[in-house]
Design a protein that fits this description.
single chain; 106 residues; mainly alpha; 71% helix; 6% strand
Length: 106
């Protein structure tokens, strides 16, 4: 495990984060088309990719609830919180830690 921005992360996971960072920072032509193409990968891989997506949305939601965002990513953080809250309110996700954080921030 390696420390990456204060997070214990495997080298493989770090490699993906760096590659994705580089991709969205100048190499991506269309978020819409990239999303469509990702939805065509193998069904099991879609499930795994969705888990990463939900984890990313959760972390942005946590950032929003704790005030860890700035003007450049406020919209993403706020929308992520709305999305994650919707999943929790619909009993799609059980996350008592986030619920406690949300209750404190309201």
């Amino acid at each position: 495990m390696e420390n990456y921005n204060g997070i214990a992360i495997s080298n493989n996971d770090k490699e993906f984060v760096v590659a994705f960072d580089n991709f969205v920072n100048g190499k991506m032509q269309s978020a819409t088309n990239t999303g469509k193409a990702l939805a065509t990968i193998h069904r099991y891989l879609q499930s795994q990719a969705f888990k990463v997506c939900v984890a990313y949305i959760r972390q942005l939601a946590v950032n929003y609830r704790t005030g860890y965002y700035d003007e450049r990513n406020e919209t993403a953080a706020r929308r992520a919180a709305m999305m994650y809250d919707t999943l929790m309110n619909g009993d799609e996700i059980y996350d008592p830690e986030y619920k406690e954080l949300k209750d404190k921030s309201v």
